[in-house]
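Figure S7 source data.
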Amino acid sequence: MNRLFVGIELPASCKEVLSGLDPHLPGLRWIPEEQLHLTLSFIGEVEGLAEGRLREALGEVRVPAFFLPLRGVGVYNSRERPSVVWVGVGKGHPNLFALHRRVQDAVLHAGLEADLKPFHPHVTIGRGRGISRQTLQPFLRRNAETEFGLAHVTGFQLYSSILAAGGAKHRVELRQQFE
Ligand code: 2AM
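Tokens for the predicted adenosine-2'-monophosphate complex:
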């Protein structure tokens, strides 16, 4: 069994910028540079045969390459506290949403359950470990509208995720290039 998800790996230059944003605040764990990605579809535990079908279906997914702006920061809250600090991708990127739909179709085609919640594309850059909104506020205000560059998206990856005490470890299982 592998715990799988599909995502877009960011170019090294974008990862470097986002990694360098770390405000080093207590109660906030910054995501290691090599793990920065945009999740397209979280799938969960998958057994070998289904993973084979998924690899095959993902291998058929092609959309035109596109540029994705990385822009602004925000948080998702859990029990009144920020749990996820994210970087946004602006509004209305038809190619990103088309890619998301194609990946979801591939997951369903493989006989797996796709996460059917609305797609809110974001790059998780930090995880709250008890930090308050107030402590994070100056960082959020400072970067609310900051442009972090453009990611040239020419493919996507199938990742496995191994849960460990210091945070999940991700490994690229498949690279699908459409350009
Ligand atoms: P994220 O994109 O907000 O960080 C691997 O765990 C990736 O899948 C993470 O990047 C995570 O969210 C995303 N994900 C979505 N749903 C998840 C779930 N139910 N459990 C774990 N991760 C999930």
